[in-house]
Amino acid sequence: MRGVRSLETTHLPHWRRNIYLFLTSQFLSGITSMVVQYAIIWYLTKQTGSATVLSLATLLGMLPMVLLSPFAGPFVDRLNKKALLIVPDIVAAVFAIILSIAGTLQSTFPLWLIFISLLVRSIAQTFQMPTIQSILPTMVPTDELTRINGQLGMVQSANMIISPALGAFLFAIVPMNFLILVDVLGAIIGISLLTFVRIPEHPVIDEKVHVLADAKFGLMKLRNTRGLWAITMIGATFTLMFMPAASLYPLMTMGYFHGTVGQAGLIEVIYSVGMLAGGAIIGLFGNWRDRMKPIFWATVAMGITFGGSGFLPGNQTGFVWFVVLNALAGAMTPFYSTLLMAMIQQSFPADQLGRVLGVLNSLTSVAGPVGLIFAGPLADSIGVEKLFIIGGLGSLICGLAMWLLPSARAYDQQLQARLATEALAQPDLDD
């Protein structure tokens, strides 16, 4: 199967034009989707002022990833990849139209309908994310995979930079019931561009889906990949330690540093600019012989910058340093997430990747809602800045564990040696 996968990626004609058209579709549709996402959260904040409502909205955005990812993987491996990208966009657009109509007919949007809309959007992303992750190895040559992942990270970071500013501008001048329809525009643009993108498929598409058996298959493949299993468990621990503070960035800015809403938005943009810079470095110079080294140092750097934020003075001088530390933390983030994803994509045959990614995404995401449950009470009892210190220490511990475990530390060296051996054997497989 590995020989078949290599043939499909390296012999795909005009692969560069094809992948950049795909990245363009993700960029344009991603901006519109995030603009609406920000607008909904700001609307909830303005209308309710309730931390409970905002926490529930955040949980609705995370739970489908945790609960459905293991079962989404089998469908990703078997169903048409292009359809898995297009259909969720159509469904999200339909719900946007329904929500817009409801907001037009009433003075306010029904809260239950907003929650349903957020849930549907999250379910759509649960299918789209592993689909994108699993098709990249089939669209580009193996030696370009890390660089293309870096460029995908740049696209996502650019969305995160542009969307808050554009969303704030539109939120101020466009009625909410019309602003929601931007999601429909994004779906039209994204689907139109995707029709011109060639996405290789696999024979496994015709096999029946056995959801539980396939989720178990993905889990067993991941567990049997010893070093990667250790890295996955460390990643889940990192999320558990990191998420409580990460969910309370606005409270850190406006409560601890006594800042404004504009400054809370500035932190989001600065972090995203840092991610864009980090993604650009990977996109340009992304072929490391041992990717575990930059992953380790990125984890340590995130721990230092994140934990250091908790020791800053609670005034505007402290906020200035908070901005600097977040720019550095943002720049380090792609070195962890992007390089790790490239390693995962190269570790399994393309026709198994969806099932593995579904389980992996669920395992690394399950700690998020757990952290969110404790975020509010902890912040109230010990102070939000202490959560940043805890998150920073957790990141340092996870980085140290990653380096001390031989199976994790040496994983990429062993992976690249295996890929080199398979590449040498490829002509024999073709014969």
From TrEMBL:
Its main location: membrane. It is found in: Cell membrane. The chain crosses the membrane at residues 20-44, 50-71, 83-103, 148-172, 228-249, 269-288, 295-313, 319-344, 356-375, 387-405. Keywords: Cell membrane, Membrane, Transmembrane, Transmembrane helix, Transport. It is a multi-pass membrane protein. Residues 18-410 form the Major facilitator superfamily (MFS) profile domain. This is MFS transporter.
